[in-house]
Every structure is written in structure tokens, then in C-alpha cells.
Amino acid sequence: xxxxxxxxxxxxxxxxxxxxxQVRDSIPLIxxxxxxxxxxxxxxxxxxxxxxxxxxxxxxWEKRYPNGKLRYRGHFVNDKPNAVFKYFWDNDSMQNxxxxxxxxxxxxxxxxYENGGVFSMGKFITEKRDSIWLFYDEGLKLxxxxxxVVGKKEGKSVxxxxxxxxxEMKTWHNDVENGPWLQYFPDGQVKLKxxxxxxxxxxxxxxYSDGDExxxxxxxxxxxxxxxxxxxxxxxxxxxxxxxxxxxxKPVDDAKYRLTxxxxxxxxxxxxxxxxxxxxxxxxMENYNGGGGDDGR
Length: 297
Hints:
By secondary structure, this protein is α+β, with helices and mostly antiparallel strands. The chain has helices at residues 2-20, 36-42, 261-279; strands at 50-51, 57-64, 70-77, 80-88, 94-101, 106-112, 118-125, 128-136, 142-149, 152-153, 155-160, 166-173, 176-184, 190-197, 200-201, 203-209, 212-223, 226-227, 229-234, 241-247, 250-251.
């Protein structure tokens, strides 16, 4: 029995190792056929839920939800998860398949939505995301790619549209936005160009209207996340433009820019969409969350 289990484990690691041994900018899907060895090994034998004389979990364990449904099933060595673990939602559908190594510190994980579609794939180190992570919608389309170093975003994050084109790119350092920030229309045309410095918008900002990258609809400058200096607002339909000089997010000459209600309404009609994208940048991007939940070990 031990020999059979050892052979199954070896096959499992060879398959998973091949699936994940990729360069830092790519992680392929683990196809269903490649997981057969994982299923076989994780399901081998009964789960006696045994502990040793020191109270440490040893061998095959399983845990169940209050409704009796299986919550997880996997092997422990000296209280540390080892090799394949399978986690389930409380409706019996797969939640997460993880392959543990390095005394339980490292885990390659594939997480699922409750409907069975792949949610995310990547690597954990001490239960924190590390290296490249890929995220999918429920239709198995790639929607986000992020890089982590022990739980913190580091490097580029990329958001993809429904057609697979890039619609946003940001740069991170130590889990804080640092560097260029770009957004794109679905056809690939640039929508927004600016940058972050230590989590705050800093430097030149340019926003374009859909279908016209030749002339910006808004052009200005941020200093410490506040509008600073000359800002130019262009109405691409009429060709009219307005210029406002800011300091610390406020017009320099209040009297000059004190507008009548009619003028304010007119400006809002012309520029509200563009200004909304600047003031509330997160509204343009989907905030993809979800995932595997607490393993409950």
C-alpha cells in the first residue's frame, strides 16, 4: 500500500511540477486530465484523522461542514499539510486544489467558483500570494494578472477586457502603487496616462475621449494627489476648451472661477464623464475578488 501511495505521489508531483515550472510571466491552466493523479492520491484510503503522541496530525485527514458535507481532505506530516489537498464548497463542488511542499510552507493552488469554473491560479508562500497570479471570470476568460512577493503586490498588474485586450496596467512596489498607470479603450486606444508615487497620483495626467487619441479631453498635473498648475478641459464635440489653474486642488483665483449655476451645469455636461474617471478611477475597472476561503484546518 505504501509503495502504491508513493508511486501516486511521485506521478502527482511530476505532473504539477511540469504545469507550474514556467517563467515568471506565465502560468498555464492545469487541465482536468493532468489532475487525475491528484484525485487518485488525495482520495487514497480512509481518513482516520490520526494524531501522534505529541498531538500532531499525521497521515490522511478530512474535515466536514456542519451539514456533513466534506470540507477538505488531504495528508499531514507532523501537523503540516503535505502534497495534495482538496477543498470543497458546502455544496460538494471543488473550491481549491493545492499541492504543498517545503514542510507546508509552499503551495501551488488552483481555486474554483462554486459553479466549477476556475477562479484563480498561483503560488502561496506561508499562506501569502507569491509570484504570478492569474484570475478568471466564471466563463474561464482571463481578467487579471498580478505579481506578488510574499503577499504584497510587486511589479505590473494587468486587467483584461472581455475580448482579451489589455484595459489597464499599473505598477506596484511593496503593495503600493508606484510608477506608470495606463488605461485603454476596448479597441486598444489609450484612455488615461498618468503615474503614481507612493500611492498618490503624481505628475502629468492626460485623458482621451473614445475614438480620438489626437487631442486630450483633459490635460493637467498632479502634485501629491492634488490638482496643481494649469488644467485644460476640451470639449471634443464643440472644440471649445476651458483652462483652470489649481493649487492644492483648488482654483488659484476663486473670483475668476466662481461660476454661475448655468455655467456650472454647462461644464458638468461637457466634462463630467472625463472628470469622473479621474476622481473615481476604480469605477472604470472591475474589482475582481473571490476565491478559496479559509481552509479551516
